[in-house]
Amino acid sequence: MDGQAGLEEVLSWFRAAGGSVGDTDEVPVEVSYQSCLFYAGACEDFGAIVEVTGLLHLGKESGEREEALISELEDELSENCPPGIEIESSFSVGTDLWSVLRLSETDFAPETFGPKMRSFVDYSLRTIDTVQNRLHPLEVVQPSANSDVLAKFHELVGVEELLARAEELLALAKLDALRSKEGLKTSTYSPHLVFTGNPGTGKTTVARLIGALYKQIGILPSGHLIEARRSDLIGQYVGQTTPKTEAVIRTALGGVLFIDEAYTLAEGKDRNFNYGEECIATLLQEMENKRGQFAVIVAGYPDEMTRFLDSNPGLRSRFDQTWHFRDYTNQELVTIIENYVSKNDYLLEEGCQEKLMTVFSSIKRDRNFGNARLARQIFHSMKRRQAVRVTRAGLNSRNDLMKILPEDIEPLEATPPKPPIGFRRG
Question: H helices of 139-263, where?
Answer without folding.
Answer: 149-155, 160-181, 203-216, 230-233, 241-252
